[in-house]
Amino acid sequence: MSSTVTAAPVSTTEFHVARQARFGRAPRIQPSVSVIKPKRRSRRRSDIEKDFEEGFTRSAHLQRFRAVRDSVMSVGEVHERICRNYATYSDSSGNQFAVIKPLSDGGLRVGVGDFDEIDQSSLEPAVGLGSSSRVNNQFELESYEVISGKQLGFVRRAFLSAEEEMA
Which of 10, 8, 28 has the alpha carbon at shortest distance from 18? Predict the structure, then answer.
């Protein structure tokens, strides 16, 4: 029994020389049109998302919010809902477990839901995070801080607690 293996066709990238040199330099070598990737269509932001992003006084604060949001989204299958003044996060069943609210000084207030073995010394009672019955604890990140492993652990335990509620 002999089997023959055929190699997959090798795709070669084709190049061409640009018609005209730029600013007196040598002509550029460019990939053919078939190689150039089409532009991705950007997602339209809603008015609420625009209002939420306008609440950040500096673009660095918005970038830091996005980094914290990405950390929260990494704990599992998480759904985000943007409101005018805060963002809520829930598990796949719709149980809310976290809220992030930007503060005027560039900080972030992060509210987390109840879970077993809450370290009361690290968390404060939730204040000003909407009227959620599930989010009862919070911690604040100053404008220069990033989310720590301990704080991300609070978010992860709140997420797991919210998932266990439905089980």
Answer: 28
CA 28 to chain centroid: 38
* pTM of the predicted model over 0.70: no
Cα first-last separation, the chain: 53
- What's the domain range around 121? 47-166
Taken in order 102, 62, 82, 138, the sign of the CA dihedral is negative
CA distance 101 to 52: 10
Assigned domain for 36 exists: no
Q: Would you say residue 129 lies in a domain?
A: yes
What three-state secondary structure class fits 89? Answer: strand
What's 126's domain CATH number?
Answer: 3.90.1150
User: Domain count of the chain?
Assistant: 1
Question: pLDDT digits over 2-54, tens only?
Answer: 445 555 555 566 776 776 666 767 677 777 665 456 666 777 778 888 888 88
Token output for 149: 């492993």
**Considering the domain boundaries, does residue 69 fall inside one?**
yes
Q: Provide the 10 A C-beta neighbour count for residue 61.
A: 19
